[in-house]
Amino acid sequence: MQLIRSVKEMRSDLDKQRGAKQRIGLVPTMGALHQGHESLIHLIRPEVDYLVLWLFVNPTQFNSPDDLAKYPRQLDRDLEVAREAGVDVVFAPSVEEIYPDGLERYYAGHSVRVHAGDCSFGFEGAHRPGHFDGVAHVVTCFFNIIRPDVAVFGEKDFQQVKVVQQLNRDLHLGVELLIAPLKREASGLALSSRNALLGDDAQLALSLSRALFRAKTRIEEGDDVAEVLAEADASLRRESIEPEYIELVDSMTMSPLTHFEGAAQIVAAANVGTVRLIDTMQVRKQ
Ligand code: AMP
Predict the structure, then answer these.
(1) pTM of the predicted model, to two decimals?
(2) Which one of 26, 33, 35, 37 would you pick to mutate in the ligand 1 pocket, going by the greatest count of ligand atoms within 8 A of its CB?
(3) Of 39, 158, 172, 175, which is the most buried if we count CB atoms within 10 A?
(4) Residue 230's domain is classified under what CATH number?
(5) Of 37, 110, 127, 172, which one is the catalytic site residue?
(6) Are 259 and 250 in contact (CB under 8 A)?
(7) Alpha-carbon gap, residue 172 to 158, rounded angstroms
(8) For 60-97, how does the pLDDT look when each residue is reduced to its tens digit (9 = 90+)?
(9) Residue whose CA is closest, atom 17 of ligand 1?
(10) Number of domains, the chain
């Protein structure tokens, strides 16, 4: 497995692969790899000949400098995980490689920027201003540099999937998108790189997925959606977890729902101590 750090080298490696008619796959990540990321690699691996793992902590999708500074980084371990999982090349560029004009010009709106569409407006987008613009921008960079045939994203970031699908459609990026199911620990906690930051709050964090599982069961049994969500919110607050939102949304449009038939999605974000976690779950009704 190779480790490549420059865009130029990455492009020249991929030109060779394309010349040999290799089907190219991309797994975008911010590193600190866990079994959720591994499941993305396992899903895409059989679909492609040459697999690129993108490992880049993208500063423009962080709306808090503190959050960016403490985001876990562990390149050596990530390289091991990637090699074991069957990745062909890890691309881990510097910030300067991806933002050649510098971050100041990005933030000032002087360099060319991509803006996410209306799927990005609520929930994560509302609570993390600029987050999805940063995601849409860097995903466009991924797709332009790698030009993958296929890319895989995790349902864990449910709204991000919607944003990327809209971006891919609206800008005619032409990448086949695979969506991987959310992976949980045996305890129910959604796997996340941020779980490593929980420390003494690791046990407390289990309440988030428990509250969502309870809400899912009650909604599927026909209980009033607004009442169930309010109870989930209140139960977390009683445990000193601070929810930012817990909503039931239309799985296609992300519009909040109180009534539905078939399938819908619960989306939630909550602060456990100083760590912000998200979780999501599908709800089905006859
Ligand atoms: P991140 O490194 O957190 O930006 O995540 C990179 C990709 O892995 C994204 O597409 C995420 O949705 C996906 N991912 C993160 N955690 C999980 C999980 N627990 N299960 C499935 N996919 C995940």
Answers:
(1) 0.97
(2) 37
(3) 158
(4) 3.30.1300.10
(5) 37
(6) no
(7) 21
(8) 999 999 999 999 999 999 999 999 999 999 999 999 99
(9) 36
(10) 2
